[in-house]
Amino acid sequence: xxxQRIFAFVKIQLKSLIKVPTALFVILILxxxxxxxxxxxxxxxxxxxxxxxxxxxYLFEFMVPGFIAISGLFMAIPVALSFSEDREQGMLKRINTxxxxxxxxxxxxxxxxxxxxxxxxxxxxxxxxxxGGMRNITPVGILLSxxxxxxxxxxxxxxxxxxxxxxxxxxxxxxxxxxxxxxxxLLASNLYPLPxxxxxxxxxxPLYYASDSLSLLFFAVELTNLRIWWDLLxxxxxxxxxxxxxxxxxxxxxxA
Amino acid sequence: xxxxxxxxxxxxxxxxxxxNPNAIEVIDLTKIFTGKKVIEEVRxxxxxxxxxxxxxxxxxxxxxxxxxxxxxxxxxxxxxxxEGNAFVGGYNVKKNLNKIKELIGVCPQQASxxxxxxxxxxxxxxxxxHLVKKEVINERMEKFLDLLGLTKAANRSAKKxxxxxxxxxxxxxxxxxxPPILFLDEPTVGMDARVxxxxxxxxxxxxxxxxxxxxxxxxxxxAEALCDRVAIIDFGKLVALGPPKELIEKHNTKDLEEVFLKxxxxxxxxxx
Lengths: 256, 272
Fold this sequence. Notes:
The complex is a heterodimer. Chain A is mainly α.
């Protein structure tokens, strides 16, 4: 693998963040909007006033981990669109006629998306801190949150690649990606309490493990709590399976 | 023993040494498409053989669907042949594709550049993919942009380019690594007459740098103006091969179009 090629791709993929409206909206504008809207709407409501018993804190504080996880999940949209568009516009074929290897191309996407995830989480943290949505999290918890989101990004790239593989066009990819996103967003985001029966479904959703571990960190649960590490372990497993499945499927069926 | 067998038996490594005049050798090449979506098998390339000399501009001429792009796609490694052999720069396309990719520049039929990037960013990207040094990329970029009259638009996003400008950028991207072998697949489609003429001059100037160019086109005048030799393909078969003037004289016709008409009974433009 040649660094010059990987950095060249990373550079243009990061430029797409500024130059492609969809990427800019999904990666930056949407999470900022969510935090600001929900922050100002629920930032002064106590959970007990809202009817949640046995909990202490503002409603918004319970939402922030979910927003971070959902924002990471939404990164599957630009990934699916960019791979589909590259294929539609003949870019994948053209790149395939250069000495670039498939590994260099995929690794560059992983690096740039992880970098975008770091930027995204940092922005959400700053805004949430200013609005008062992260009073309890420790510095180690913040650090671990970044690690969780970087790992989670791998699974979103996997979702993006699988979407690009099964979609015939970028337009179709923009719709199909929601098959992966919507159920996770509704059932596994930890934004609101759900009946325990839904846990059977959420067990198969990587978003659940990201949002659950983030929620624990946001409420300063001791790092010795095994649930955090169990969540992280399952998340790593999910992410590896999804990214490998995504790469293999896209290589076999998605590049033509 | 056929020529194909001889080449197969030579271990398929570098079969053309520096004294070999051929940059490309195509032997009994066949491509049959038999995907699930194709009800009947399609013989897109049907046992064609030809060679391209080093430093020559070689035209693949024929109507749409004749097999020109399929042949090029096999030579650049985007498709696998069903039968036959092909060697680019002395390397077997089936076994030494990585070596071939270091030798070639490809200008695809579809103007394939990142629309959200400007010309400079697109050119720089492909220079980097070929591991060209930054200062060399810049030097070549300035030269090519100037030669094709794109300097003023170099910092403008490609999505704001006209069709002709996109095609020119498409060509520059293929040239940035200074490849000894160039594949230009219908490089002037969609260009107006003025831009097409300028592009012809540019492609002609490549002869001075001793590049081997394989050009597909269905513009007769383009093939006549640029190519040292042409191969006329129809329904995947090679129907004529030679220098344009020689083919015209041999068939006692006015131009290559008439050569094609005489051999196949139809016009090249009919298939378009």
